[in-house]
Every structure is written in C-alpha cells, then in structure tokens.
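INFO  loader      accepted 1 record
INFO  loader      residues=137
INFO  predictor   begin
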Amino acid sequence: MSLHGNLLEPDDTRLPVDPAAADLTAGRDPSEVAAGSPSSSIAWAVLAERALDADETVAAYAYARTGYHRGLDQLRRNGWKGFGPVPWSHEPNQGFLRSCGALLRAATAIGEAPEVERLRTLIDDSDPEALAALGVS
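INFO  predictor   done
INFO  writer      dumping tokens
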C-alpha cells in the first residue's frame, strides 16, 4: 500500500507467476497442462474458453469452476481475505480472472442468474477494468 492509500482497503493481491503459463505460451495442449499442473487457473481458464467457443457450455462451466476454485486457493495462500483488489494488469492474476469470466459466460448461458450476479460483483470488485478486458458486460 502506498503512503497515501486508503488505510481501510486491503493491498492488491498479486499472485506469483504460474509456471504452467509458459507451457501454454509454448503451445502445449491445455488438457496436458491442466493434467500436469492441476492447480493452474490459467490452464483451466483456457480449457473453459475453448469449450465456450465450441458451444460446449457444460464442459466450459466445469473447467471454469475448477479454475475459479484453484484461483481462490492461490489467492488465499497469498493473503487475500475474500475481498479486495486483484488487478487484471498483473498477468499472474489473469488465470483466476479469466476463469471467473468464463464461469460468468457459462452461467449466463445456462440461466444461472444468481451466479451471474455474484461473479459480476466479484470480478468488478477485483478490478473494475477486468469485465471489459474479459469482454463481458
């Protein structure tokens, strides 16, 4: 927190680099990456996004839910208390936020309205710029 920050707000949570991200960037199959690194939110997010693009909504929901929960585990291990900034601009946070975005899209597709609103709020509270970055409104 900066010297001039709001003392009542928690500091940003910045996850450490996910080694699986390099495997994905190198072109490895996301299914193999997720199987070899099941705690990687980014691997699950990529699987969810691909499933959404293929109109496999239920599979996308399951992949995204896994990435979301893995991300929550990582955030908590890194000091997040269930609220506070999780900046999109910090690339290692994007696995969690992309999982949330994919889960939001899948929940919208199956008509799970309470989940949609909860996810919108979580993403917006994490970083107000994340919804636009994720291409969801």
